[in-house]
Amino acid sequence: MPKKVITAASVLVSALALSISTAGSANAATGFTAIRGCGTTGAYGDMSATNWYGPDATINVKFTLTDTAADGLSVRIRLVSKDTFGRIHYWPWRTNAQGNGTTSTWHTTASHTNGLFDIGIQVARVNGDGSTKNHCTDW
User: Fold this and answer.
1) Cβ proximity of 91 and 49 under 8 Å
2) Per-residue pLDDT, 32
3) What is the pLDDT of residues 13-62, one digit of tens each?
4) What pLDDT sits at residue 30?
5) DSSP single-letter state for residue 137
6) What is the Cα Rg of the chain in Å?
7) Buried b vs exposed e over 62-75: b needs ≥16 C-beta within 10 Å?
8) Is residue 109 a contact partner of residue 59, using CB atoms and an 8 Å limit?
């Protein structure tokens, strides 16, 4: 009659598989929070996105944007995302035109027909004609 041998490696693999499947189930049920932030000359912005449980999620987004220079220029922030095909989607800008030292906050949601596979932000300082003077991006 053959004997079954249980090795430490097989026990470890079984425990790892159980912990991954358990963590995945909890994550799928509640989603997780993604936090991004960056600063460029004259502007600092950050974003937190909650309820991101997978590519087909509708995420809750909070943007915070601060004008950090007394230069008379506006600052702006937007969501950027990558879809299932690796294409980048540039979302509409949110603008703070209140001047140096002011902070604006926005709450919104986002989802995309081709999925949200990666999300980030862009923060920019804007010339008087609306063109971007300088910017940063954080994935």
Assistant:
1) no
2) 85
3) 333 333 333 344 344 446 889 999 999 999 999 999 999 998 999 999 99
4) 64
5) E
6) 21
7) ebbbbbbeeeebbb
8) yes
